[in-house]
Amino acid sequence: MTTLLPLHDGDRVVQLDDDVAAWLDGFELRLLAGRIVAIRDNQFIDLQNLIAGSGAVTRDGNPYDLRRRNLGALHYDFGRHGELELRDAATDGAGLAAALAPQTAAAPPSPVDAVRLASGDRLAFLPFEHARNVPNISADATHNAATRITLSHWPANRTPARYKANLSTESVLRFVPEWVDDPDVRHVTTDHFDLDGLASVYGLIAPDHALRHQARLVDVARFGDFARGRSDAARRLSFALNAVAAQASRDIGTPRDESTRIALVFRALLPALRDLLDAPSIPDALWRDADRHHAATEALLDHPDATLEQHPELDLAVFRLPAADALRGRVSQRYFGLSPIGFHNRTPLSTVALVAHGDVVVHQRYEGWVERVSAAPRPRRDLSIFVRALQAADPHACRWQYDGVQHIMPRLGHDGTRPSGIPAETIVRELKRLLAVAPAAWQPTPAPERSAEAPLARVAGGALG
Q: pTM for this one?
């Protein structure tokens, strides 16, 4: 039997088999980048892959019909020269139950005080869960029922066209000069902490000061979300803010709920951002270690044995790294434990493969998750198809993992408990073949805003905006 469940906004319904629908109580269902995502406690679950297995697609192209009869799974096998096979959905009742299991009854969110910088500010900050019934501006997040305006680059955002930008901070800084005060709206909200979210919230709470530091705030947001940029000052400010956030998290410990943690982090970081923007210099202790880590990555990538191979038609960049002892045993770490800034500043391509000591890790960049108004990458491919192929082909039974196409910056690699039995160059060759034939699986930027020749132009023209 079929159950119809409404999306969060109530404008569409999703068709689900009864047994699947029964698990979804307490989840918000949203269409993000062409896929139905179940959200609870800011955790995103890709329903079609959960229901039908890795590489799931809808047979008729309708993302709202997630009944098993409309789902199939794409399979790829090494040595087949780039062929995909559509097979019936693989039902995993235990996996479904584990991923969607009801939570223990939780107490209501703890009361939090709105975060203000000064008593005369027009807006104060409230975490997303505390702003569901409070008229709000949603910054660097999705909207809720009480949102009056969204300023965000998230997929399926409702940012007015004239304010859309590649970073949420840019959207905010386009909005605030035109801001007409609404006496009902006294709160800004977001559902997470990162530097783009921090700069966005700051721009709304302290608009005059933010506009005086507009370029620096945008650079900080870019370093925060996209891990790239050329400004030494903005990079060090980003490192400093991350250090302050890490210390704040240690001081906070384990709060009763996530909303309380977010409120406390913003309470610490908003004044820190204000003060660091005005400071003649940033204390070395806040940024020196991270900057040394970045410099070490730069030195490694400048080594004569380091190479970069770019495939714009596949949106793939392959970095082959020198045989440095420092990289041994790091295959389970993101970017082999290196700074992603060095890689991202060298290529605009959003699928990044790193090869070192016979191991391969693949990262899909943040730029491919959000909506872009310029230089949109090729739509992201679902690499869970490739993980299944790797697992089947690996003679060492290595445990390969992929975070999921719905994750902001998913990583593909093995867990490092044993070396892979597949040569690195075989993995790279098969990855290219898979990327050439796999369909788009995450499309945050509406199709009319794309240019078929954009990838080639980006490689010729430099880094993404």
A: 0.93
